Fold this protein.
Amino acid sequence: MELERVQVLVVGGGYAGLSAATLLAWREIPVMLVERHASTSVQPKAFGVGPQALEMLRMVPGIEEELSAIWAGIGDDMRIAIASSLADPNPHILIHEDEDLAWLSELSPAPRVGAPQAEIERVLRGKAEDLGADLRFSTELISLEQDGTGVTARIRDEDGDRLVRADYVVAADGSRSPLRKALDVPTSGKGPLSRMCSIMFDADLSGLVRDREVTLWYLQNDVFTGVIVTGTGTGSHVLGVNLKDGETEADFTDERCVELIRLATGRPHLDVRVIDRPMFNISHVLADTYRVGRVFFAGDAAHTMPPTGGQGGSTAIEDGCDIAWRLWLVLTGQAGPDFLDTYDAERRPIGKLMADAQLANLGVRMPPEARVGYPEPLEDPTGVLLGRRYHSTAIIDEPGDDGSLLEDPRVPTGRPGSRAPHVVLDWAGRRISTIDLFGSGFVLLAAKPGGQAWVDAGRLVKERLGIRLTRLLVGDELIDVEGCFTKRYGVTESGAVLVRPDGYVAWRSPEADPDPMGTLERVLRRILSR
């Protein structure tokens, strides 16, 4: 049987798998992706890319522009509302993005992207292929065996079976994850919550919805509960209906779907064409580990969460981007093998945090009598967008660190474990953000006049360790436009900050150090498990 060799095998062609394949290929790591379906999603599914996910994707040339163009062709705004139907004269507006999320533009250079999942997956697929990733649709993983040096997988396509030998596997194979079951990964969480029929349809909703606006309507009426998404940019709309006890897929005939759509829109004689009506589960399921040997779980295979809050897709993208840079460091010899343990240590607490927040949002959107047993929503949800923190051996915490998973991104601290703050810089007459500096390797930032010693030390440590490390002096060729770099990063003009490829602060020295080269080398060896 034919044996193919690749460094990373990705199983699953959704958000997590495509993001991992794209970022691995961008870093010139040979990667193969297998997906049992014939193509990417045709349903809109999740909407939008969160700012942190987009910050991790935008390092790939052209991807931000393509995603922004899709959103520009769809709308200018997004709302989330609770109503009995689209004709409800008094909907309860939960979120109006133009008003409620305006602060994001001050904290991130990433634009708002409210595009549907089908379009985002299309862009990711195209980028991965352009970068040289080997994407194989209509191809299924049949079995997998691990040993001390790699993984052997049997895959099957229309031409039969073949074997693939890989160093590592990214399991992004969805909420039911055959790999999670095959490797006996235990799970926790609230479990299955409901089953929903997702009815994709064409209809003229003029007069019911606003032009150039995507709206998620959570419907509560005497006949059914569910959600309708309008303004998807696909030319179609989607109605999700929660199944009642005893209902099955057979109950959702074309006639029934048309009836439900007319109830949801409040137009009893609406002309409707049903396009598709797949079933799916709404669940709260958390993998109790994200790593089994050389297999790493990402996306819904790691954390299946209710769609309420719109962060499930972004969290999956972040997983894919995150495991990609860690695998790159190990496969290129910049980090030791134990460095890969930091993926579980950092991403799993965040996965639970996001899933629990989405579960709480689901409770808020349900009728009052159905909210029993659901957690209370976060008092301030802004932290889950840009204020999440990591703790692992790849982060050197400072004395007195409280171990928190959230902080207020509007008051950036620059402390280790937090996202490196956005600061506007002028580079040779061009305005950029500190965020634009991150992605291709580690970045050492220091300020004039005392930071030159750190920059000089970084050059020597880079050569000694053989790592990708960029050294930059703020106040030299990089001009701090607003004069806030030292304050936001929590250092003096003689200190330094080390930022990881994912844009997170790994370590900082607020002041000068008598032995900057020795300190920096010890720090990097510890962070990289060297």
Observations:
- The two ends are 38 Å apart (CA to CA).
